[in-house]
Amino acid sequence: MVRNPERRAALLDAAIAALAEEGARGLTFRAVDTRAGVPAGTASNYFADRDDLLAQTSVRTYERFMPGQAEWDDVLVGPRDRAKLVEVMRATITRMVSDPEVYLATLELQLEATRRPDLRRDLTARVRADLDANIAFHEESRMPGGRDTVLILYLALNWMVTEHLTLPGVLAPEGDLDTLVARVVEGVVLDAPSSDGDGTG
């Protein structure tokens, strides 16, 4: 396989766009080459087959989803109370909806995983590891709530983004995303005393 990290990333970004706009059936080597603006046959030099393309595309979606260091650092600034958790969740949702094709491509990959055991195995391991990391970070940073809080927010906010990007009219009468995030967090987390992160809160 050819090794050119920039070209590989461009091809995977093209694959993400194809998945988001056309679904898994639209993800072909030819479609990736066309979207990436490269000569026909280029994608086949980087990916062994369609399964390999799907697997590497799923990894690329995570790379594009990951928050920057500034967002991580901001979690540790100020009191760790319910208001802070609302702020953190709003930043997370904003990041997710600001690049909608990545989220939509992820949904397509999950659907495709129901038909491809290897893809299901890889996605399950990656998503589970990410969830475990979020739980650990939440607890270590002394944010309000615990493991169940993270699980409930994970389920509620992921579905909120799904509805917003696929059927926006469903939740529109309930308010904008910032309002909905606050309502979810405030419904899950009691307004308990904050922690300043040094073990004295």
UniProtKB/TrEMBL annotation:
Gene3D superfamilies, per database record: Tetracycline Repressor, domain 2 (1.10.357.10)
Domain HTH tetR-type: 5-65
Keywords: DNA-binding
Protein name from the UniProt record: TetR family transcriptional regulator
SUPFAM superfamilies named in the record: Homeodomain-like
One Pfam short name: TetR_N
DNA-binding region as annotated in the record: 28-47
Domain of life: Bacteria
